[in-house]
Amino acid sequence: MSGLFHCASSPRVERLSEGLARRAPLDLSVLPENDLVRHHVNLSRKNLCVDSSFYPLGSCTMKYSPKAGEAVAAERGFSSAHPWQKPEEVQGVLHVLGELSRDLAALTGMDAMCLYPAAGAHGELCALKTARQYFRLKNDPNRTEVLVPENAHGTNPASAAMAKLQVVVVRMNNRGRVDVEDLRKKLSARTAVLMLTNPNTLGLFETEIDTVAKLVHDAGGLLYYDGANLNAILGRVRPGDMGFDMIHVNLHKTFSIPHGGGGPGAGPIGVKAHLAPFLPGPFLVQESNRWSWTEADSRSIGRFHGAHGNFLNLLKAWVYLHLLGDEGARRVSLAAVLNANYLQEKIKPLLPVPYGAGRCMHEFVASALPLKDETGVSAMDIAKRILDEGMYAPTVYFPLLVKEALMVEPTETERRETLDRFVALMRTIVEEARTHPERLHDAPVRTPVGRVDEVRAARNPVLK
Ligand SMILES: Cc1ncc(COP(=O)(O)O)c(C=O)c1O
């Protein structure tokens, strides 16, 4: 805007319609650099983030993102690339996209990847539209039902509804896994897709996965793997080998990339060969050492992103995979699962874990219900009190399958000392619930914003 004012006599500004040009100089304060830096640093300190504290927000995989990814993404050749540049001008960018596609396909057991979706839920929608197109062109348009287990992530039914498909809920058994008998009953000639979150939202691996896969395929349906929790199985098992036809991967969870508050993200999808022609185009192709784009044919669902996906996020995931290597990728899932099980065993004596009889995967869900019945202190009170002590809180009240839920996901990037500090804090908080419950009801008192009225905010959102 200041450029516009200073160029007030340039021909470009003269073309502005009456009333649009600035009439008075812009009142810009002049600050020394140190004041500006302090202002921004102090602002950043008002927030809890992975760079400043432990962040066990279940289902969100708030792992530490290596700064190397930021450094590479800031390189001018990458940061100033434009999606409409000619392929010969951006061979490096296309090389990254091509290599990332191959690596993700190899890690998930799929034949083709589509890097366009900008978030996990966007990937779900893209995959469901691809599945619909597949059935339409197979002259099987009546397959319009999407089966979603109770223990799936909430975006699954929402995406099915967005894709104009009908949601059929499949029950969960008392071990927190898909109820195979109920699945059998819900399958029919109308079944298009089963969407399975695995590990599911209780942090449990679906042990009857082979039976589930066979039942869905025998009924003529497709299997969709919600791979947002890929952290738990990376480099160990591949959804493609379990029989799945489609997957989305939350790069902003499993492959680092700072995220939160809904973005920015990247949710590529992978498919088996029989679904590849229906993916959005254009497709990236490599001939000898040269990469280029080729338009998709009429079988494709069309474009799904204005550019070629959130490139700088895709680049950070590529850097992360290069930092890890094959063995590093395997160690990610090993450490993510080990950390979660370590915490689960330490938290169990303080708060019960309703589906925690066996091992969990990368996260687990504890319940504050007995503590609430005894002391009046809720899962929300506990979460707010954790903030006062400078750590972030677990996800609360999700999944709905567990009452007074606290969903804990430590991720693989935390040391045992950090996990022990969290356990010590939880022990103090549970003791406080019995001795000084008001401390928990009043929390947080040390954060810039105190307890907000969540009910009023939900009923009466002020969005500007
Ligand atoms: C299991 C699962 N599926 C889907 C999603 C949706 O991903 P996004 O928030 O990127 O849309 C999430 C988000 O955390 C998730 O945990």
Give the number of domains: 2
Distance between the termini: 22 Å
Structural class: alpha/beta
H/E order of the elements? HHHHHHEHEHEHEHEEHEEEHEHHEEHHH
Which compounds are bound in this model? pyridoxal-5'-phosphate
CATH architecture designation of the largest domain:
3-Layer(aba) Sandwich
The whole-number mean of residue pLDDT values reads 94
Strand order of the largest sheet: 1-7-6-5-4-2-3
Q: Could you say which overall geometry the principal axes of the C-alpha atoms support?
A: globular
- Helical percent range? 25-40%
Question: Can you count the beta strands?
Answer: 12
- How many helices does DSSP assign? 17
Query: What's the gyration radius in Å?
Result: 25 Å
CATH H-level name of the largest domain... which superfamily? Type I PLP-dependent aspartate aminotransferase-like (Major domain)
Structure description:
With 464 residues, the chain is an alpha/beta fold. It has 2 domains: 69-323, Aspartate Aminotransferase, domain 2, CATH 3.40.640.10; 325-452, Aspartate Aminotransferase, domain 1 (Alpha-Beta Complex), CATH 3.90.1150. It is built from 17 helices and 12 strands. The strands form 3 sheets. It has a 7-stranded mixed β-sheet with strand order 1-7-6-5-4-2-3, sandwiched between helices. Strands 10-12-11 form a 3-stranded antiparallel β-sheet. The chain starts with a helix and ends in a 5-residue tail after the last helix. Pyridoxal-5'-phosphate is lined by residues 59-60, 119-121, 153, 155, 197, 226, 228-229, 250, 265, 267.
